């Protein structure tokens, strides 16, 4: 598995497995177990997904040494603030059945995320979190926390796919030594993603699917990807993206698909902010 090197020298797989919207614990444990069988070692979960326990169960039952895994979870808005964040980190450790978390992120840029980040810095120094970062932080809030935190975010997980490529945001992250990570690498099928003619034509050259081309494009841009699926066949397909490489011409064609805007929601939109912050009231 190819890896990226975070600012503290820790290696992170460039391809992982996401478990967003797999809320049934039995199903989540099953699919994570299958992903591990396929070869995935990086698993991305979150407190808000309510499936940390299932991830922990699957990792434990795999029989594979804990140190071979890279487990990511995230502090939710309702757990923001120094004391609440500390309590939530302890709960995540308990549910994941692990003595440390490889990467802890602030899930959303709302509520007292500075207090949350101080708690994460404390756990990082204690060795209970091996890397810390943020999620959904647009360049303005990302720069803010990077400028005023003791330990700069090592990862920023943001919506990144061929229709929203985050090129400027990635440049800003690189300036601060922060690794970009994609959520939604397939845009959840929006814009008729899986029938895109550009991606299909490129894929036909290599005997690869639209999904594989889309993942390969991000990987060649040094973007960490965490595709989610409940199908073992698709897990295998998503894993088979290291046996081909896109040419500069291919990359340029895909770059032109960028619409430079979210296909989901904007964290700068007042209605979106009211909705997300209202979830915890």
UniProtKB/TrEMBL annotation:
<comment type="similarity">
    <text>Belongs to the aldo/keto reductase family.</text>
</comment>
<keyword id="KW-0521">NADP</keyword>
<feature type="domain" description="NADP-dependent oxidoreductase">
    <location>
        <begin position="18"/>
        <end position="258"/>
    </location>
</feature>
<feature type="active site" description="Proton donor">
    <location>
        <position position="49"/>
    </location>
</feature>
<keyword id="KW-0560">Oxidoreductase</keyword>
<dbReference type="Pfam" id="PF00248">
    <property type="entry name" value="Aldo_ket_red"/>
</dbReference>
<dbReference type="InterPro" id="IPR020471">
    <property type="entry name" value="AKR"/>
</dbReference>
<dbReference type="GO" id="GO:0016616">
    <property type="term" value="F:oxidoreductase activity, acting on the CH-OH group of donors, NAD or NADP as acceptor"/>
</dbReference>
<feature type="site" description="Lowers pKa of active site Tyr">
    <location>
        <position position="74"/>
    </location>
</feature>
<protein>
    <submittedName>
        <fullName>Aldo/keto reductase</fullName>
    </submittedName>
</protein>
<dbReference type="InterPro" id="IPR018170">
    <property type="entry name" value="Aldo/ket_reductase_CS"/>
</dbReference>
<feature type="binding site">
    <location>
        <position position="107"/>
    </location>
    <ligand>
        <name>substrate</name>
    </ligand>
</feature>
<dbReference type="InterPro" id="IPR036812">
    <property type="entry name" value="NAD(P)_OxRdtase_dom_sf"/>
</dbReference>
<dbReference type="InterPro" id="IPR023210">
    <property type="entry name" value="NADP_OxRdtase_dom"/>
</dbReference>
């Amino acid at each position: 598995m190819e890896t990226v090197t975070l600012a503290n020298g820790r290696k992170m797989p460039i391809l992982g497995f996401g478990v967003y919207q797999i809320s049934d614990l039995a199903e989540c444990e099953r699919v994570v177990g299958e992903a591990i069988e396929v070869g995935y070692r990086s698993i991305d979960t979150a407190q808000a997904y309510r499936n940390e326990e299932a991830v922990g169960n699957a990792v434990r039952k795999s029989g594979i040494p804990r140190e071979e895994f890279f487990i990511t979870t995230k502090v939710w808005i309702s757990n923001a603030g120094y004391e609440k964040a500390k309590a939530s980190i302890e709960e995540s450790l308990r549910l994941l059945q692990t003595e440390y978390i490889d990467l802890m992120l602030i899930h959303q840029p709302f509520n007292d995320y500075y207090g949350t980040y101080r708690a994460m810095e404390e756990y990082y120094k204690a060795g209970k979190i091996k890397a810390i970062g943020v999620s959904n932080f647009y360049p303005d809030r990302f720069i803010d926390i990077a400028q005023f935190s003791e330990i700069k975010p090592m990862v920023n997980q943001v919506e990144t796919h061929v229709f929203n490529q985050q090129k400027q945001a990635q440049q800003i992250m690189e300036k601060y030594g922060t690794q970009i990570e994609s959520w939604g690498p397939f845009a959840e099928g929006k814009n008729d993603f899986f029938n895109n003619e550009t991606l299909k034509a490129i894929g036909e050259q290599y005997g690869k699917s639209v999904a594989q081309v889309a993942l390969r494009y991000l990987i060649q841009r040094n973007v960490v990807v965490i595709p989610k699926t409940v199908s073992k066949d698709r897990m295998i397909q998503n894993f088979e993206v290291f046996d081909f490489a896109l040419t500069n011409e291919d990359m340029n064609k895909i770059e032109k698909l960028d619409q430079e805007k979210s296909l989901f929601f904007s964290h700068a939109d007042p209605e979106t902010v009211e909705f997300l912050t209202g979830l915890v009231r």
